[in-house]
Structure formats: C-alpha cells, structure tokens
C-alpha cells in the first residue's frame, strides 16, 4: 500500500516494462531470467505440497524433512500429473487462473480456520487440559503447542522476530520487489493495495498458525515423526476436505506463479507464444517439484528469492520518487536509449553481494531472513549515488 | 437456478465453519466433522461454478 500501489496507479505499467525503461533491454532480460527461474522453483515447491495429498490417497512413500531427491515412482508420477494440470490452466491465461482462485479462496480460508479449531480440540483431548477461559487457552498454547525447544539438527531456531520478518518478507518479491505493479496498475486508488494485505495476513498468519497447531499435535503424539507433510496432517484433521484444501492451496499458489514466470520468460523470447512458453515453464516447475529439497527448505528459499528480487524494487522506488526530487532523470535507459543502465545493474548486483556477505558473516542479526531490510536501503542509496555519477553534467 | 446455487454456496461455507466449531465444542466426533466438511466442500465447488465469475447481463 505504501511502496508498490502508489507507483502502480500513477505509472500504470507492468514491472517488466517499467524496469525496461529504467534498466534497458539487456539488464531487464537478465532480471527476467532470474525472476522466471525463482518463480519456477517457488511453483515447483507448491506442486510438491499438493502432491503430498496424493500420497495419502495412493499410499506411496513420501519424502522426509531431510530428503533431497524423489524417493518413489508414485511421488514422481503424482508431481507430474499435478504439474501438468496446473501448467495447462496457467497457459489458458489470467482469466482462468483468477477464476480458479476466486472459487477456491473463500472456501480455503474457512478450511484453514477449521484446521485450527480441530487441532485445538485434539490437543485438549490428548493433554486432558481444561479450556474454559482465554487464560487457560493461552496456558494450553504455551505449555503444549508453541512451547519452544531446540530445533532439529540443520534447522534454524525461529524466534518471534524470525516469524515477524518472514511473514513480511516471504512475499517480498511481490510488494517490496514490485512484482505486483503488474496487477495493481489496474487499481483505481493506491489504498486498493491493502487487498494484498488481506491475502498475506490470512494466508500467512492464519494458515500457518493452524498448520503449526497440527504439526505440534503430530509431534506430541509421536515425537519421532518429524515429517513435514501437509497432506497427511490435513487428512488427519479434516479428511477428504483437508486433502482437497492441500491440493487447492498448492494449486492456487503455483498457478499464478507459473503464469508470472511464463510472462517473464516470454519477455525474453517475445516471438514465442505465451501458451507455449507457459507450458514449458510449467514443465520446468514440475521437474523442480519432483525434488523435495526445495519444498523442505522452503523458508530459506523464499527468503533467498525475495532477496534476489528486492534490489530491483528499490531501484524502481528510487527512480520513481527520489530521482526527480534530486534533479536526476527518471527512466534513464529509455531517455538515453541504453541497453544496460549500469547504475541499476551495479545497485542490484552490489546489494546482493553485500547481503550475501552479511549472511556469510554468520552473525545472528544478519541471517537471510533479516538482511533484506538493510539491503533495501543499501540498494536505494547505491542507485541514487551511481545515477548521480552517471548523470553528472546532465539536467533532468 | 443461479439464486439456489448462491444459497447452497453460502450454506456450504457456513457448514465448513460449523462442523469444526461443533467438534471443538465436543458436540460431534472427528469422523462426523470430516464427513460434514467433505459434503460442504463438494457442495461449494458444485454450486459456486454455477454463479461465480459469470458476468451480469443487463
């Protein structure tokens, strides 16, 4: 609402076109490639999520938390089938994608709510706790559900701040990274950007709270069962409706993601049809979905993909709001017919290098979940300083 | 047809919330809850296709 939508309703351009005006054709091609590949992996991990529901139905072995490779023919086949169907729907275009999402969204949100209630009731039964007030409910939550403890080997311990930053940044590519310019350019007012917040808060906070209750219940019943498999968890709570919810939840994330990735790739190969490019993109996402490593490391991956795309969002922000105020030229690549705007390119790459170096320093305040916040300011400052250098002697 | 589909859709959404609420209140079993949620899910998808996303005719 504060970053993306105000620019979207004023410029009325897709991210890719706006970036081309700022960065030049070649640099935006490189960005589109990174963008498309990242979206493919994200879509692949969502296909993985949907496939865990098929595993309950057909009973094939499913991957564990530390599995990197596909571990059964049934797993590969189910990912292939789900990926193929999602790809075809995405290739049909935005209208079909939005129709599926519109039908699924209200039902899915209520099923998430149901998961939470069911999980709470089961906790009450297995612990014998008496819940008849807010304070007794809070006691159940802190003593049995979110009771803390050491993380599993190889996993990061999530604190309150990790959850806060992750909830904010896991869709960073869309708002801070400005991908939503392509959607919000149709908004009538900047405050319509608040619609994104409803998806994020309901999708992230409510669904994840419910999922954590169900997972905590699984660990309470069998501490050795550390598998993170949405399908079995949902089936245990809500039966077939739960399985449907897992399939649809993965589907509704993968569908627009494949569509967006297809657009990014098509911008690189404009002579190819969008249908063909989206199908090929979907196949790439399906291939990625066969490898559970991505879904099982989803938190780190999502933080990485937000980080990679974030600096270009900062470049768009600085170019739109700050450069004119500083007497510098907006849309410099278009103005000078440049193929590459080096100020934007260096700001992007240097920000990534600095952020990765901070992560590699190993300091807890510079974990990958946190570096994007300082990274955004670094990218803005770099782009402004380099633009000033680049445009020395020119007038806006 | 459209009006009845709309009513069925909203009733099915209500049932999606009602079933887990009744289970939370220990009024129904988990198996009954699962069955009710599945029925509500089928009703939602069957009925919502009849009205959702269709353009209004002037």
What does it look like?
The complex is a heterodimer of chains A (396) and B (58). The mean pLDDT of chain A is 88. Chain A has 16 helices and no strands. Chain A has one domain (4-390): Hydantoin permease (Orthogonal Bundle), CATH 1.10.4160.10. The two termini of chain A are 28 Å apart. Chain A has helices at residues 4-11, 15-23, 25-58, 73-92, 94-127, 134-145, 160-169, 181-184, 194-221, 230-268, 274-289, 292-296, 298-325, 332-336, 342-360, 372-390. Chain A has 396 residues and is an all-alpha fold. By secondary structure, chain B is mainly alpha-helical. Chain B has one domain. Chain B has helices spanning 2-24, 30-51. In chain B, helix 1 runs antiparallel to helix 2. The longest helix of chain B is centred in the first third of the chain and has 23 residues, at 2-24. The two termini of chain B are 18 Å apart. Classes of the chains: A mainly alpha (396), B mainly alpha (58).
> How widely separated are the two ends of chain A?
28 Å
CATH architectural name of chain A: Orthogonal Bundle
- Spans of chain B with pLDDT under 50 lasting ≥5 residues? none
Enumerate the spans of chain A where pLDDT stays under 50 for 5 or more consecutive residues: none
| SS field, number of helical segments of chain B | 2
Beta strand % of chain A: under 5%
Compute the number of structural domains of chain A. Answer: 1
Elements of chain A, N to C (H/E): HHHHHHHHHHHHHHHH
Q: Helical proportion of chain B?
A: over 70%
**Category from helices, strands and their pairing of chain A:** mainly alpha
**What share of the residues of chain B does DSSP label as strand, in percent?**
under 5%
The ordered H/E elements of chain B are HH
Brief summary:
The complex is a heterodimer of chains A (396) and B (58). Chain A is built from 16 helices and no strands. With 396 residues, chain A is mainly alpha-helical.
């Amino acid at each position: 609402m504060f970053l993306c939508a105000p620019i979207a309703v004023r410029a009325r351009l897709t991210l890719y076109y706006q970036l081309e005006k700022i960065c030049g054709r070649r640099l935006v091609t490189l960005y589109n490639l990174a963008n498309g590949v990242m979206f493919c992996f994200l879509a692949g991990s969502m296909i993985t999520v949907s496939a865990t529901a098929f595993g309950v139905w057909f009973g094939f072995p499913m991957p564990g938390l530390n599995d990197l490779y596909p571990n059964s023919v049934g797993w590969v086949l189910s990912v292939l089938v789900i990926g193929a169907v999602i790809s075809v729907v995405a290739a049909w275009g935005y209208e079909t994608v939005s129709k599926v999402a519109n039908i699924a969204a209200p039902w899915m949100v209520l099923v998430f709510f149901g998961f939470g209630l069911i999980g709470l009731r089961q906790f009450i039964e297995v612990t014998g706790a008496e819940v008849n007030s807010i304070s007794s409910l809070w006691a159940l939550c802190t003593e049995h559900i979110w009771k803390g403890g050491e993380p599993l080997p190889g996993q990061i311990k999530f604190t309150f701040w990790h959850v806060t930053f992750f909830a904010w940044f896991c869709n960073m590519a869309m708002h801070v990274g400005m991908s939503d310019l392509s959607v919000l350019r149709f908004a009538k007012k900047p405050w319509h950007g608040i619609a994104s917040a409803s998806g994020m808060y309901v999708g992230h906070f409510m669904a994840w709270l419910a999922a954590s209750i169900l997972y905590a219940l699984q660990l309470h019943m069998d501490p050795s069962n550390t598998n993170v498999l949405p399908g079995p968890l949902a089936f245990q709570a809500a039966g077939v409706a739960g399985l449907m919810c897992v399939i649809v939840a993965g589907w509704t994330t993968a569908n627009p993601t494949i569509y967006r990735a297809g657009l990014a790739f098509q911008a690189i190969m404009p002579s190819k049809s969008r249908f063909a490019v989206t199908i090929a993109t979907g196949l790439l996402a399906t291939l990625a979905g066969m490898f559970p490593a991505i879904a099982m490391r989803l938190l780190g991956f999502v933080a990485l993909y937000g980080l990679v795309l974030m600096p270009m969002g900062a470049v768009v922000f600085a170019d739109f709001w700050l450069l004119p105020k500083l007497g510098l030229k907006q849309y410099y690549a278009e103005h000078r017919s440049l193929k590459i705007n080096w100020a934007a390119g260096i700001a992007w790459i240097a920000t990534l290098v600095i952020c990765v170096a901070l992560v590699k320093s190993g300091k807890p305040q510079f974990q990958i979940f946190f570096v994007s916040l300082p990274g955004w300011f670094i990218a803005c400052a770099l782009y402004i300083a380099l633009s000033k250098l680049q445009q020395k002697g020119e007038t806006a | 047809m459209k009006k009845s589909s709309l009513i069925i859709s909203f009733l099915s959404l209500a049932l999606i919330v009602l079933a887990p609420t009744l289970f939370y209140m220990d009024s129904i079993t988990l198996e009954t809850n699962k069955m009710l949620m599945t029925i509500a899910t089928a009703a939602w998808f069957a009925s919502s296709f009849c009205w959702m996303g269709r353009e209004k005719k002037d």
